[in-house]
Amino acid sequence: MSKQQVIFCDFDGTITINDNIIAIIQHFDPPGWKAIATKVLDTSMTIKEGVGLMFHLLPSSMQQEVIDFSITNVEIRDGFAEFVQYCNDNNIILYVTSGGIDFFVYPTLARYNIDTAHIYCNGSNFAGDTIEITWPHPCDEHCQRNCGMCKPTIMRQFPTEQYNRIVIGDSVTDFEAAKLADKIYSRARLTEQCAELNLPYTDFATFHDIIAEMEREK
Questions:
Q1: Which of 22, 153, 171, 188 could pair with 140 in a Cys bridge, judged by C-beta atoms 3.0 to 4.6 Å apart?
Q2: Residues 6+ apart with CB under 8 A from 61
Q3: First-to-last C-alpha distance (Å) of the chain
């Protein structure tokens, strides 16, 4: 019996053209954010720590401004709607595994036919003086990378004996997930990392590219 295909798809920079977290912080430009972002990208600071610190620079009084900007700023990568339909039509399980934040991930994906139980992302709390990011999907005992939203932990819920695990992503939050994948669709920094680690990958520009490759591999 063939394995069930399950896809773990990143959000920022993958489903979207832009990285919403960086776009938000860049737009409101709080002092000190650039040094934090650099440390996250070069992996000298964990994702959880870096993202938490960057949003901590923004006052909670800006809640509506931040939410409005984050939603209106989103640009969806070409072919995503068709890709969701392709997964539904072909009995492929699709999960969105995002290091993004609930206040822009859920509203953006609401127009697509994706079960909200299949959307994993970080949370937010505006009750204090500054914006607090919450972490409902932490690392399990097999991961000590302080990921924040731990993609490998989610993937381990789908054993390789039963599932063909596919990762789609672009950046630092996808590195560890890619190491567990049977198939990787990558772009940008994830492509560079896969090449360095000799992980097999297929580069993509749009979701039409992924659909075409999956059709070829049937």
A1: 153
A2: none
A3: 15
The mean per-residue pLDDT over the stretch 63-85 comes to 96
Edge-to-edge strand ranges of the sheet holding 132-134: 132-134, 119-125, 93-101, 4-9, 163-169, 183-186, 202-203
Domain count within the chain = 1
Q: How far is CA 139 from CA 60, 95, 147, 210, in A?
A: 27, 17, 7, 29
Is the whole-model pTM more than 0.90? yes
Average pLDDT for the chain: 95
Largest CA distance in the chain: 56
pLDDT at 147: 86
What is the per-residue pLDDT for 205?
98
Q: 1 falls in which pLDDT band (50, 70, 90)? A: low
Question: What is the SS3 string spanning the chain?
Answer: CCCEEEEEECCCCCCECCCHHHHHHHHHCCCCHHHHHHHHHCCCCCHHHHHHHHHHCCEHHHHHHHHHHHHHCCCECCCHHHHHHHHHHCCCEEEEEEEEEHHHHHHHHCCCCCCHHHEEEEEEECCCCECEEECCCCCCCCCCCCCCCCHHHHHCCCCCCCEEEEEEECCHHHHHHHHHCCEEEECHHHHHHHHHHCCCCEECCCHHHHHHHHHHCC
